[in-house]
Amino acid sequence: MRFNTSELASLATNSLTRFDKEGLLILTERQTIFWRTDVKLECWCKLRGNLLFYLKDKNPKSSVAGVLVLENCRPSIHNEEPEADGYVFDLEFKDSPSQRIVTHSAAERLDWVRCIQASSNQQIDLQIKQLEDQIAAATAAKRAESAAMGNRIDQGLPLPATVCHDSCPASTSAAAAVEAPFEDPELSELPICETAISCDSLPLDSFGRAPNPRVVCSVLQPGEDYLWTQHARTELLERTRAPSFLCTMRFLRSAGFQASSRLRFTVYDVRERVSLTSLPLGHAEVALGVIQDTTRLRLPLSSPSGECGSITLTSWAPEAATELASASGLDRAVNGLTQPTQPPRSSTQFFQQATEGSARPKGHRRTQSLPPKLGVRLFVPQQCGVGHVCINPIQHSYRLQSSLGADISVLETLLESRLCCAVPQQLLSIWIQREKELLQEISGMGELNGEWRWRQMNLLEEHLRLLKDYSQAKQNIQQLMRDGVYYKRSAVKTDEALEFLPVNLHVQRMWAQNDALHRRGVLDIVTVGAFTRHDAKGRKCGGLIKLLQESKAWKLEQSNACKVQAANDAVQATKQLRKEIVELMSQLLQLATQRSARDMMPLCNEMINKTQTLLNIWEPSIVEEAVTFIERHRIIEEPDNEPLSPFRKITQQLSALELKSPELEDFATPVVAPPDLWPRGGQPLMRSNSWHPSNTSPSSSLDINAIDSLQHVVKCYNAHLRNLEQQQQQEEVKEQQLQPQHLEAGAAAVPPQPQCELSEEATYQSLPPSWEGVAGASSTAPVQLIDLDEMVKAVRKRPQTASFLDTKLMSSSPSANYYRPTEEPEPLDLTQLNIEASVMCLVSKLKFFCGRSDSPAIRLRHPKVPLKREGFAVAPQQTPDVIAAPDVIVEPTQQLKLDLAPGPLPAPPTAPAPAPPKKGNKFTDGLDLSLTTDWVGELRPSMRKLRHAMDRLLKTARLMHSVQRLQQDVRCNRLQASIMYRRDVCFSQALTALVSALMVRLWGREVDVAYISLLRELGPLAYFEGLLSLYGSETDMWSDMCIAIEDLSAVSFTLVSAAQDEVQPMPRITGSRQALEVLLPVPEHALPATGRSSLSFKITPVFFNIGINEKATLGQTREQQRSNLDNYLRLSQYFSRYRKLGLNATCAADADASVSEWDALQSLLGYMEQQLRSTVSKNVKVLHLAEDACRLMGGLRFTSCKSAKDRTGMAVTLEQCRVLVREFQLPAKQVPYVLSTMRSEGTRMDNVFKNIGKHKYAFNLPQVIMLPAMYRPPVGAYGKAQT
């Protein structure tokens, strides 16, 4: 009785209340005075529904003593015979003690039991079903008897269905054949009408208090006679009899609405906001066609108790449709709604049509005035092409009143990004290819002896694990895409299967217009959960910042840690330069086909510069160290009659994983047969330049089971090696203890023999038990093996039609750019010499074609004294594969001496004496420009040789990298792998959000010349707003977000023209982990006007975080303040560059407005610095100032908290209201009311429902109290909910 005491007492004592049963009962109550005792109380009881009231005594008019709620209870009779105090039955509750009740007779007891059983929810549901069936039958009979329509429109009654069909039979049948009812609305669709609702003269309750009204609009489903479906509802107002609601209702054709659609507006009195307990006050029914034809319609509310007030519907319809149709004489009716032949699809088209064909003066509606002004126009936002990049829109509209009395039209839209799964999938493909490369690098070193074999297996196991994790994640995302899911619910954020997807990624769009000010605008905010790797067990690691600091400290202790990073950077630089040089050669071939000599020289000079950089990447000393290491520890090839070792079997099975490099990194070499990784017999060693897979090659899709089986084999063999090593150490210790001291000198020579035997035993005989099912080449093995012999036959049968730089064959192969285990590395100086000679020959021919035949040979590098290499000699059966120009001697020393001579070459001894020395070089001797017609044929051999030489340099670079990684500490490799994986997860989420925001900006809004200039010269600003608290697990999230956002600054974006028939433009991600490039398809008008060429840019990310929940009071803010100051410096530098460009984000017409905007930005940043340096707790002014600066400079907006649901919803709605106040003159006194409406009835509440299935923000009362006042949700909109 503590809750709703007055209401329950009024219900029990009201004489008009009809009770299901009344009578005297004896209740047993447990009372505690000095000790607990059971007291029997005989009192008058009343049963109303599932409430059993018991009074203080036997008088039926006495006051209420208490109430029993008969939920989850069952009456039962345990003893049919009477007891000492009467006839007893018990109320057995599910989670509470039973209640003992006594009656005076057996018939009375049975009657009470039956009444209590009938009050259960199950029985009430059956009664409701029976009533619905009766109503349906009565409604059908009433319609059959009705013959005359009468004055139903004036009475506000719905039109009969027969009359509607007779008035427009053609339109109704056409619509029934074409339209599908209740589909997702189109973003650019003009609504039939938009309706604002107000009420007056609502009744008071029994205590004389005004109601808490809310209006719910229901629609009668097509084909149904009694099933009303809720369409929309208004916000809740408190204690008013004449409410005027801000929420409006829109009726769209795509949602199944027609002129004959029957609508019911029901007014409820919400008695309790937490549970939304409400009572209906009255309802009114009307047809949609009646609402469309009238500007203002006032209807009486009907209820069983009689009239209970009125409801007023103020509607706006697209008037331009009727005006243009009447002017042109092309009237056409669809579903009883008059519209033009081609209805306007956006606000821009609407304005143009209204200006040409309408002379009606425009006005505005005062919400509080009656009657409203006529001629109010309905404006629809111009959504451009946002539907191409977003899906599943949810919309809510509002009509607000400005300080000048004008209307402010507001439309909220919540959208899902189509790229939520596509971007992580492409990133995973790149990372999968990287793991394949590293696997091939390790296997390319060959089998090593001693502890290095165990380190090799550790690296193989680590990369196979990463390959399996990346492949499994990609497969899970593909399955999600097939299911048509475009966002990850916050309830599953700890699911490791979808950890690469951003949590709750949505686009929040607010369109607003003030017709009196002739101003409209769009605010786009990307809401997304924190970029982090959630741990299902709640374990904390400190985040990426702490992990990177630990890794850095670990690297300082390791001597070769810097060498590993340098080697990796050198490999990536070699791959990038090789790619760029091949692209230049491809362009030169196209120009040579056109015989365009003028355009060839700039490309030639650029190729010379890139080649010079390529030759100076690697130091010969590092290469010599790696080659010496390989020669010292590589195991000699086994005899033919011996079986393959476990390591060689494992590396042989890597072919089943289709190890190949990305398409952009390997360029086709001549098609040859695929060499075996471990060739047997008398086959000579080959330089593995290329092998292009045939049509019978394995599919590109990875077999997760094959990877898992191979990883298991590697893990078992690795453990086997560790056990053998431990056994060997134990045996050595025992032998040293047992051997006599006088044989100590002879024992020093003995240990190598058992070590060698043990090594051989571990290599050939002591295999793991799990190896048997995997190592075999049979078809029943778990790992899908590749029949290399069949591949060789297939490749040999295929015609050799591959040509140089054939784009169709530019795919890589298992051995294209890696050394095979049995292949000896080529000397670095020889590789550099071949590159230099090829470039010199190619450049000389290009200069000859350009008319510079007398130009001397170029110098690419300074001659160096060749280093003497120890312990390495080329096998006798191999001849150095030297790439030389025609008529050039192959010796390296003579090559340096002849090719690099800057002066003119001496004339031959047999040349006549009077002839002057001939200028030029030997590469073009004998060529006649007038007789040379095939330029491509002359250039192709030199380009092919240059490409071969670069392939060998890349192979050497990868070998050096693998050696450096092998020499690194095993624990450091594991730490780096875990950090890399966590960083990839966070970066995938961040890049997905960023690409989605860019595509929404480029497709969903107009792109003018100023914004194109901003992209070209500076790049856009990306402001990430964080609401995380540096306490507990959110500290790790904040740390991960800092690193992930910082990594976005290294990504390059390029705008490319989208295909005309492309319905869903899809960005394409290329490059490597260190140098990513995202190709963004955009409409043709969004590209630069000059030549429609591509445009490249990078973003400037800034991240400001202020914790606002109760944990922010407990957490540390020192690191947060330091990070915010660093990001402020970056924002200030961006503003300085932005100001130098002279761009105006708001496109002000006059110069004075532009100057005032610069001053406003300058003062805003100055005030922001003051706020950052202050020590105010939860200083949200920093976030507000950053939002204003970002909007003034045309930046991208992101808002994040843990799950982008609760705190994010509060922040987004607050920013929307701030924009309405600052730019659309919303009165400040209305901000709390508008803010409460948007939070309780807007799209953010829909976002909460999509994530957890409840219309409740996940706050409790103490948490709400700890929030800043502007971030608190309204009463009734929060409660216990799973976050």
From TrEMBL:
Residue ranges of domain PH in the record: 18-121
Acetylation as UniProt keyword: no
Family annotation (InterPro entries): C2_dom (IPR000008), C2_domain_sf (IPR035892), INPP4 (IPR039034), PH-like_dom_sf (IPR011993), PH_domain (IPR001849)
Transmembrane segments: none
Span list, region Disordered: 334-369, 901-923
EC number: 3.1.3.66
SUPFAM superfamilies: C2 domain (Calcium/lipid-binding domain, CaLB), PH domain-like
Skewed-composition ranges (Polar residues): 336-356
Ranges of compositional bias, category Pro residues: 903-917
Record's keyword terms, sorted: Coiled coil, Hydrolase, Lipid metabolism
Source taxon at top rank: Eukaryota
PANTHER family associated with the record: AGAP000124-PA, PHOSPHATIDYLINOSITOL-3,4-BISPHOSPHATE 4-PHOSPHATASE
Family membership: Belongs to the inositol 3,4-bisphosphate 4-phosphatase family.
Protein name: phosphatidylinositol-3,4-bisphosphate 4-phosphatase
Organism annotation: Drosophila arizonae (Fruit fly)
Gene of this entry: LOC108618894
